[in-house]
Design brief:
Elements (H helix, E strand, L loop, with lengths): L8 E10 L3 E8 L3 E8 L5 E8 L2 H13 L17 E8 L4 E7 L5 H20 L4 E4 L11
Antiparallel strand pairs: 1-2, 1-5, 2-3, 3-4, 4-7, 5-6
Length: 148
């Protein structure tokens, strides 16, 4: 049994929508449903939402990133300035391991960046391979029902 086969994901969340710039939120549920919300801060502030099942390839990439970054031991030590843009990643396993890491705009952190890039890859997969289930005005308070 590999280390990756021991990781049973319950929730994975990337929150990275920035005022005036847009961004993305990525939600992965324990049943491997992925919901990606992409926000474009053009003059109308539009968003697209995608819903699909996590492929084996994407799951392997995600588990590999969790292991490579030692995510459950990761913390980003920075001066936390409220006026700085930030992204956060939360990962929770069915075994009860959980970590939330907040990264403010500024210095690079290779471990955080690897995890972030993996979730960005999942976002790009959605945009290239999935038809949006919602296209319209950005709803700032919207989150998937299973994440409420």
């Amino acid at each position: 049994m590999t280390e990756g086969s021991k990781i049973q994901l319950e929730k994975v969340i990337l929150k990275d929508v920035k005022p005036y710039f847009g961004g993305r939120n990525v939600y992965i549920d324990e049943d491997e449903t992925v919901i990606v919300q992409v926000v474009n801060m053009d003059e109308n502030i539009q968003e697209k939402r995608y819903d699909f099942s996590l492929t084996e390839e994407l799951k392997e990439l995600l588990i590999k990133a969790i292991i490579n970054t030692n995510f459950f031991e990761l913390s980003v030590d920075e001066n936390r300035q409220e006026d700085k843009e930030k992204a956060f990643i939360t990962i929770k396993t069915k075994e009860g391991r959980q970590n939330t890491v907040i990264k403010f705009e500024g210095p690079e952190n290779a471990r955080f960046d690897e995890m972030y890039d993996t979730l960005m890859y999942i976002e790009h997969y959605a945009e290239e391979n999935v038809i949006p289930f919602y296209e319209g005005a950005y709803e700032i308070d919207w989150i998937p029902e299973s994440f409420e």
